[in-house]
Write a structure and sequence with these properties.
Blueprint: H1 4-29, H2 35-40, H3 46-74, H4 76-94, H5 101-129, H6 132-142, H7 145-187, H8 200-209, H9 215-218, H10 230-240, H11 251-280, H12 285-313, H13 316-337, H14 343-358, H15 360-372, H16 377-406, H17 408-422
Length: about 425
Amino acid sequence: MTENAPRAQAWVILVISVVAQMAATVAITGPAFLIPHMNSELGYSLTQAGTIAVAPSYGLILTLIAWGAFADRFGERLAIILGISLTALATGLALVVVGSPIWMIVLIAASGAAAASVNSASGRMIMGWFPRHRRGLAMGIRQMAPPLGTSVAALAVPPIAAEHGVPGYLWFIVAVNGVMALVCVIGVRNPPHALAAPSPDARRESSADTEAVAPAEAVAPDAETLSPDAGAEAAASALGSAGNPYRRDSFLWRIHAASALLVIPQFAFATYGLIWLISNQHVDAAVAGAVVAASQIVGALGRMIIGGISDKARSRVGLMRVVAVLAVILVGHVALVSLTPVPILASIVFILAATVSVADNGLAFASVAEAAGPRWAGKALGAQNTGQFVMSAALGPGLGALITLWGYPLAFAAVALAPLLSLGIIPKRDIDRIT
C-alpha cells in the first residue's frame, strides 16, 4: 500500500459521510416543509402538522448518545449503515399510516431516531481517518452537511409534495436513504487505526511488530506524520484513554456547555431569520428566502474554512473564543438594525451573523472527539449533539415569546448574551487524547 492510498481513501470516505449526513438531514428537516400539505391535503390541524415537523428532532434527542455508544462498541460503519437503513424503513412504513396523525408522528420520530446514527458515527469516523493536523478541515467539511441538507430539503420537498403529495415526499426519503445505505455498504470502512483500545496482548504484539509494518497500514492514514514507533505510541494512548473522560477533568463538560450557548444564535436565525427579514425589515418574501439560503451556503463554507484555520493555528478552543467574540458583535448589530428598516444593510449583517453563528460547530466537534479518547468519542459526540438539539427545542417557543413581549431589538440583544456568556466557559487549552 502506498502512502497516498490511505489518504485518498480517507477523502473518499469523507465525501460519502457528508452525502450520508445530507440524506439524514433531509429526512430530519423535510417534514417542516410539508406543513401546508398536511394541513390542506390530509386535513391535519396545524398542531398535528407542527408536531410531525419537529418529531424527528425528538427522535434524535432520545438516541444520539445511544448511537454513539453503539459506534464505540461495534464500529462506525455498522452504525451508519444500520441507522440510515432504518431511516428508510421507518419512512417507508409511514406510507401505510399517512391517514393517521398519531402513527405519522411515531414513525417520523422513529426515522429521526434512526438518522441520529449518522450524526454520532460519521464524526467519530472522520476523527479516526484523519490525523490531528487535518481533522479541523475534515470536520469542517463534514459539518457543511447539515446546512446543505437543509437547503436540499427546502428546494426539493415543496415541489415534490405539490406534485405527488405527502406520499411522494415519503417515497423520496425512502429512495435517497436506501441508495445511501447501499453506497455506505460499498464505500465506507472503519478507520485503519484502533479506535477501540487494544488488549494488553495486542499492545505487546503491536510493539513487537512495529518495525515490520508500514506506519500507514499500522496506525493512521497519513503516514508522513508518523515515526516507526507511532504504532506502539498510539496503542498506549488508546489504553490510557479507556477511562471515563468526564471524570478526569471539566474539559468536555465546558465544551458541551459553551456549545449549547453558541448554538443559540444559530437556531435563532434559522427559526426566525426569514420572518425577521419580512416583517421587521420589509424585505420581499422571495428575496428574504434567497438571503436565508445564501446564509446557509456561506455558513457551510465558513465551517470548512474555520476548520482548516484551526489545523494551522493548532488551537481549536482559541478559535472558538474568536468566533464567540465575533458572534457577540454581529448578533448585537442584528439587534441594532432591528430598530429601523434598512433592508440592504440588514441582509448583509444577517448573512455575516448567520455565518459566524455556525462557525464554531466543527471546532467543538473536533475538540470533543479528541478529548474524549477512542472509547468515548462516539458517546461524547452524541452528548454534544443532544445538548444542541435540546437547546434548539427550547429556543423555538422561548425566543418566540421574547419577540412577542419585547420586540426584535431586545430579543436579539438577549440572544447576543449567549456567546458572551460562553467566553467564560470555553476552556483555555486544547486536550488531545486521540493521537
